[in-house]
Amino acid sequence: MKPIARLVGMSVAAAVGIAASAAAAEPPDLRRGYEVGARLEVALEGRIVERCEIVGGGDVDLGELTGGKEMSTSFGLDCNLPFQIDLRSERGGLAHAVQPQGEGPYAGVLPYDLKVAVPTLQPRGERVVVEGDFSSMELIGVRSISSGEGISAGRGDILLKTRTPPGAGLLAGRYQETLTMTIVPRV
What we know:
- The termini are far apart.
- With 187 residues, this protein is mainly beta.
- Helices cover 13% and strands 36% of the residues.
- The protein has one helix and twelve strands; from the N terminus they run αββββββββββββ.
């Protein structure tokens, strides 16, 4: 009985070995489901999420208000598509907190000039600084600066310069103004 068991075990092993060698000898059909030729094309696709952010702001204390006083600051700008910046003044100047219309010969609003400069990277690789110069009265209505076809290329700068107070000067007290800058992506 032992020789029969050995013979059955050998024939099973031989059959497995023959089937494995037959499968290895036959090359796989690589053409099945593919175009045959000298060139291979693979379609690739991706996406960059649009991003347009402005960072900065807060309170700026100009101290004692006088004509010709300058203040400069910068703001962060990160925009990977063309954009515009809309600027708006709430009061059209630094306005007296209680009596913006003034009193007697004393004025209640100190006008100012504002310059905004933003570095951009244009489509052909050139760096261009786009600028806007506005009076505080012009900013009561929204004014804009545009990047053209460029994207942001770093921090923007703001320069504010007060004008000479009208009349006999400014009414004593606290003055305030809110300047709003809004970034608007252009897609």
